[in-house]
Amino acid sequence: MKNIYKYKEILTFCLMSAISFVLMDEAVKTISPITSTFITYTITAMVFISINVKKIKLIISKSINHLYLIFQLNITTLVNTLAAFVVMLYISPLIYAIIFFGTIPFFTDIVKKNNINFKNNGILFIASILLSFYISNAQLLEACIGILLTLISSYFASIYLCKSEILHQKTGFTSSELLSIRFFVVIILCGLYAVIYDAVFLIENNEFALLSIIALTSSIIPLFLLQRAIKNLGAETTSLFLPLIPIFSVLILIFFDTSAFTAFEFLLIVLFAILFFFIGKLKIKVNKKKQ
Q1: Which of 11, 90, 94, 143 has a 20 to 30 A CA-CA distance from 228?
Q2: Are 254 and 20 in contact (CB under 8 A)?
């Protein structure tokens, strides 16, 4: 029992990420993706700004010499987060989770200009696409658009991860400090659209509550849990649990009876998660040998 308890943060992170994807799918049924993005990440930004309110002068002074890099982080955040909401109009949150996490390692290699490991990351990339097409209930055109948008979201998330790592090294920002300056472009551009074209002020209380929960489950609480998990388990061990997110997504969708899956489809998703896990384990072994 103690062995399971030490994984509580990363297991909760995976569960909350799966919940957030399902809730995002519900949100875009009544709220436009742009307004959803605006409200969700305005709430997120406000939380992290309030956490760091006493450090505002320090954050500004650290940021002055890295404005272009911070602008890049904001642009990649805009594309990544907006695409994540728009994609829910075309495909299920499960498909998004499978492709997003299945292609991140491949795109990270591209962004970092590493030699792409086709035996591992390439196989995972292709497997995620093939699996998504197979289990998707969407029409072919909608599935293609949704998968393309997910690939865009994943690619820009990879850029964000790499650029944020550089900014961490150059400034010594903590994760919460970085998140307090990450969403300005999202808030400005999506906010302008929401105010001018989308009647954001007419949003109902239950819709605002839903987006608040999405902010909590997609960014605010998961960040804390992920940082705790990395501190307690290490980044490599933490990454091995990410394949649980598609599995949790399936179970949530089945529990709320919003999607139906055959036993074979569920088996394929589990096998994909196992493939993801063993590729991660292999990567850890290779990295240890290099050291």
Answers
A1: 94
A2: no
Task: Give the chain's end-to-end CA distance (angstroms, integer).
Answer: 33
For residues 127 and 274, the answer to whether their CB atoms sit within 8 Å is no
DSSP string across 159-204? HHHHHHHHHHHHH---HHHHHTTSSHHHHHHHHHHHHHHS-GGG--
Q: What are phi and psi of 2, to 5 degrees?
A: -65, -35
Closest listed residue to residue 93, CA positions, set 245, 244, 289, 200: 245
Q: How far is CA 62 from CA 51, 74, 162, in A?
A: 17, 16, 19
**Predicted local confidence at residue 118, as pLDDT:** 65
User: 41-64: per-residue pLDDT in tens?
Assistant: 999 999 999 999 999 898 989 888
CA distance 32 to 111: 31
β strands within the chain, DSSP E: none
- pLDDT tens per residue, range 2-43: 567 778 888 898 999 899 988 898 888 889 999 999 999 999
CB 90 within 8 A of CB 140: no
